[in-house]
Amino acid sequence: MAHPSRISEELKEFIVKDAPPTVYYVPDFITEAEEEYLLQQVCRAPKPKWTQLSGRRLQNWGGLPHPKGMLAEKLPDWLLTYSQKISALGAFAGKAANHVLVNEYKPEEGIMPHEDGPLYHPTVTTISLGSHTLLDFYTSVNQTQDGVPQTEESRYMLSLLVRRRSLLILQGEMYERYLHGIQGVAADTLTERVVNLSVAGGQVGETLPRGTRVSLTIRHVPKVCRANLLLSRK
Ligand SMILES: O=C(O)CCC(=O)C(=O)O
Ligand SMILES: [Fe+2]
Asked: Quick one: DSSP state of residue 194?
């Protein structure tokens, strides 16, 4: 299926202006009924589909990204619907999303600051279910000044308040230049460093207790190989 090669006009109104290029934040991208449905589907996945990591557990759908190419597997219908919706917004420069990570975080769980790296088309799109979170951004370690090592605190740049049912799209500098992470805390206190407060609906000084959050991280892996191509070699 062909998708628009550029971000659609309707998405452009959701650009977060106070962040480096480019962040799109779409509140209420899905309805409460869709949220409920997606949470049920995540729950219904067979137990071995889950990988327990320190601070979260995850499901991987679509295949395992690999430098030599991902052995692509068809996405289940419940993920395909939303992947197609996001691809139709032009998020992946004309390509279709083919990979989804489902992360589940309980209160006090999180993910260390990291980069998503070169195996993905440099756009990450995330639907949040069940709870909000704060996504924090950091300059990378090799952007040290005068060879002085920097602390996580001094590398901290800004945060995005990501509400349940929202869609977040990160690309450009926000994908390639900065690290992102989620602190393992039970509640988030909003500060002036949360740059999308006006659109996400929050006040500086407000404290939001976290519930269990499930995120769907939907991406495009450009390099894939298909099993039947390999088998047909000889
Ligand atoms: O849960 C999220 O929104 C972030 C997940 C993430 O950064 C990742 O899986 O690479
Ligand atoms: Fe990530």
From this structure: B
